[in-house]
Amino acid sequence: MENYVLSTETTADVSREYLESRKIASIPFHYSLGNKEYVDDFGESLTIHDFYEAMRQGEMTRTSQIPNGEYDAYFRSFLEKGLDVIHVCLSSGLSGTYNGACMVAESLREEFSDRKIFIVDSLCASSGIGLLVEQMANQRDSGCSIEELNEYALKTRYLVELWFFSGDLTYFIRGGRISKTAGTLGNMLHIEPLMSVGADGKLKVRKKIRGKKKTMTTSLEMVQKYGDADQKTIFISNSDCLEDAKILANLLEEAYPGVKIHHFDIGTTVGSHTGPGTVAFFFMGRDRREIESEFNN
């Protein structure tokens, strides 16, 4: 077995048990709800339902990226054991945490000159990061060296498709992801924008759809258009709206018999920006750089 650690952050929005089952380490983000500070710890300090319920009641949230000191202690815990590290970050298009991790890694490379540290900008968010590290864990288990895994990650990150929709745009407006005018009008007309993460790792509004049923069928169409023909694994995450996630899952299972669908919660860091009522789905597919050019034409 290779003498290195595959690592990510709690913004990967999979469960702790899932990461542990795939031997993937993780470091948490931090967030505040009202006047209280929390660790994004897979809903252990505050349940995911209670977090979203507090948002529904008007509590304000704020997130902060992982401090450099915490990155240093985290990476050091592996390096001191003689282990190399490959760490997968939340998209640089959504957070500055990648830059922070790179700064810390550069400093540690000088101190641990006989060790290797690779920092990967996932250009993904939420369970899209989870799907990327799932693919990387498969490669690691097949015998990839850390250098080979880094090269694999830099190519494969563009093949992870990330799509979102929400029935309540209030939190996207608050976070600046959607303009106030567009978001307010969308809420009034029950328009659910279908969004994706582009090749630059930033959130993009792709379609504006009226009505939940149409949103669901259009979501399926996006998987059929941009996904691999033989879908084996799809991740679906939701922010306290599991029933909506199940409706989408049923459509996908009908279209792709035998597909393995994993359900996860949108965690507290990403959820601070999406709010309750968001469904996200993630699958392997076409290169996002090619898809971006289609949307831009």
TrEMBL record:
Entry's Gene Ontology molecular function annotations: lipid binding
PROSITE patterns cross-referenced by the UniProt entry: DEGV
Family annotation (InterPro entries): DegV, DegV_C, DegV_domain_contain
Domain of life of the native organism: Bacteria
Record keywords: Lipid-binding
PANTHER family membership: DEGV DOMAIN-CONTAINING PROTEIN DR_1986-RELATED, DEGV DOMAIN-CONTAINING PROTEIN YITS
Function: May bind long-chain fatty acids, such as palmitate, and may play a role in lipid transport or fatty acid metabolism.
Protein name per its UniProtKB record: EDD domain protein, DegV family
Taxonomic lineage: Bacteria, Bacillati, Bacillota, Erysipelotrichia, Erysipelotrichales
